[in-house]
Amino acid sequence: MNILRQSVSRVSSRLYRGSPFMGSPLMMMASYNSSRANTFATQTPSATPPSNDPVQKKIAEDVKRSACVIYMKGTPEQPMCGFSNAVVRVLNAEDARYASYNVLEDSGIREGIKAYTGWPTIPQVFIKGEFIGGADITVEMYKSGELGKKLEEAGAKPASNNTNTTNTTTNKKE
Question: For residue 66, what pLDDT band results from cuts at 50, 70 and 90?
Answer without folding.
Answer: very high
